[in-house]
Design brief:
The chain is mostly helical. It has helices at 3-13, 23-45, 51-54, 58-80, 95-114, 126-134, 136-147, 154-176, 182-208. The protein is elongated.
């Protein structure tokens, strides 16, 4: 289509467009829904029997708050990047809390390796299922919100969206799943978050790409 014809068509047929709210406001709306859904899953699965004891542990709080911050900042970055012209640097915002999250688990692994009890590794594949379940509705909602914008970097957008949902799913998982061995958490829980985020990156073009009208 020629430029002049496109301008004429837009002038003739285009209706009024309501601007999207700021990314932070959309992120707060998403967060309220996502936390509510995660809370329902935790209640349905039943909170872990030692939750009160875990809430007295500093490392548990550091991991949970860092994972929650990762989810919030990843969701905000994904929503911000759905608006053309946004700097890609906003995608770096979840890196610090994510590094703190993984670092706290690494400290736990080091303590376990140097302790007398040693480390045993057992399979926990259900972690992937539980994280995906808890993050399912938040992920769907975030994808729907992204599609209201125009993600020009669909792979990055979807990877951030899935990271946000999976990190929040991990927060919920820690509230009802009793596994607390640092190495197991690092491999099965954080590994599940990384795997889901990578899947989001792979599927980004399929899920978020829009055909250009001619």
């Amino acid at each position: 289509m020629q430029t002049d014809a496109l301008i004429d068509r837009l002038a003739r047929d285009a209706g009024p467009v309501r601007p999207l709210p700021p990314a932070w406001r959309r992120c707060l709306g998403w967060l309220a829904m996502a936390v509510g859904f995660a809370a329902v899953i935790v209640l349905l699965m039943s909170p872990r029997p030692d939750l009160a004891e875990q809430l007295r542990e500093t490392r548990f709080w550091v991991e949970q708050l860092a994972a929650l911050a990762t989810a919030i900042l990843a969701a905000h970055a994904a929503l911000a990047l759905s608006v053309p012209g946004t700097s890609r640097r906003v995608a770096l915002s979840p890196l610090f809390p994510a590094a703190l999250w993984l670092g706290s688990q690494g400290v736990g692994c080091l303590s376990a390796l140097t302790g007398r009890s040693g480390v045993s590794i057992t399979g926990e594949p259900e972690c992937l299922v539980f994280i995906a379940l808890t993050g399912s509705l938040p992920a769907v909602a975030l994808v729907a919100m992204l599609r209201r914008g125009f993600p020009v970097r669909p792979r990055l957008n979807l990877a951030l969206a899935v990271l946000a949902a999976a990190a929040l799913g991990n927060v919920g998982l820690r509230l009802f799943h009793p596994q607390d061995a640092a190495l197991m958490v690092l491999i099965w829980q954080s590994g599940s978050v990384a795997l889901l985020s990578f899947a989001g990156w792979l599927l980004g073009r399929t899920v978020l790409d829009r055909p250009v009208a001619t």
